[in-house]
Amino acid sequence: MMAPLVRRLFLVALALLPAFSAAAEPRYTAVFSFGDSLADTGNEFALTGGATGNTPPYGDTFFGVPTGRASDGRLVLDFVVEALGLPHPRPYFAGETMADFQQGVNFAYGRSTALGPEFFESKGFTLFMPVSLENQTEWFRNVLQLAGSVEEQRKLMATSLVMMGEMGIHDYLIFITGKLTEAEIRTFVPHIVGAIRSVITEVIDAGAKTVVVRGMIPLGCQPLMLALFEGTGADYNRATGCLTRLNDLARKHNHALMGMILELRRAYRGTGVSILYADQMDPVIKLVFEPSKYGFGDKPLAACCGGSGTYNFDPTFATLCGMPGANKCADPSKYVSWDGIHLTDAANRHVAGNVLRSIVLRQTPYMAHLSSS
Ligand SMILES: *[C@@H]1O[C@H](CO)[C@@H](O)[C@H](O)[C@H]1NC(C)=O
């Protein structure tokens, strides 16, 4: 099935760029994707069978069956590759040979952290299922080995579009639910961004020419966070109803991400490498702030599928979407949040429009502002 809205947004994006010509846009042959459950299209599912998204009603809106995607349908990555006319990258754990990966690989893994387990252990946290960007980097090296000689590896990477992230949500979730103070959590931002940076330099050094870095979504608008902080006297943004300090944390993360990207652009100047930032914050804030303008319903801060309460999310995690006793809204396309943590197919489509703009226009307003300041 096509993605008509994304296709239309893509065409609009093209129309916005007068100098655009088909010849100027690199023709990618594959997508290499890194990330967590926001981009996992079946890795955790293939490896453990126990992923978020392994039971109905996950997949109900699109696909018709659970695929391991943490949504009722497609992820941002799905919409982006469809709009660019590229094949869907194969989840790393759903392939074995280079033939499986020739058209791209998705290393994104549900609940993956940016930071490795040592970092969490040093702060007194034990990860019950540690998968981090270190694992994803190792899997990337394995695929490169399959590609053959260094020359062949570089050829493959040069025509690939690398989609990095979003990464870091799970790191922040662990710290936030672990009751660390926000001041303390802020000191980890450079570490998290540093872990993302390591992967970016590794893929570029392996020959990648285009890397799209997807930013953090507004943590303070997630039903999960809203339910966790309900009644604690936390600060809410009056216009959106989102948690101010958590959105500030997400913005701080994105700011550090953009600073890192600018630094890498300087380091790789003159090498033909493009490192692009794709904002995922504003598109979600817009949906939450003015849902009706975008065709969404009047409960943009409640999960479509979940438990109960103001945000339809059970903060004790006893009744989550996909579990017995969970409820599901009548029309997921009217909701921003699918299960309280992940976005609906409809919201992902909207965010994908913004990510596509960054890829096609090769700029974002934020970056322009930062470069000139
Ligand atoms: C990820 O790496 C850690 C070591 O850092 C290891 O214990 C774990 O088994 C790896 N996970 C997977 C799925 O490969």
From TrEMBL:
- Name the UniProt record assigns to this protein: GDSL esterase/lipase
Q: Which Gene3D superfamilies does the entry mention?
A: SGNH hydrolase (3.40.50.1110)
CDD domains registered for this protein in UniProt: SGNH_plant_lipase_like
A GO molecular function held by the record: hydrolase activity, acting on ester bonds
Sorted keywords for this record are: Glycoprotein, Hydrolase, Signal
List the signal peptide residues: 1-23
Note the superkingdom of the native organism. Eukaryota
Family per record? Belongs to the 'GDSL' lipolytic enzyme family.
What's one Pfam family here? Lipase_GDSL
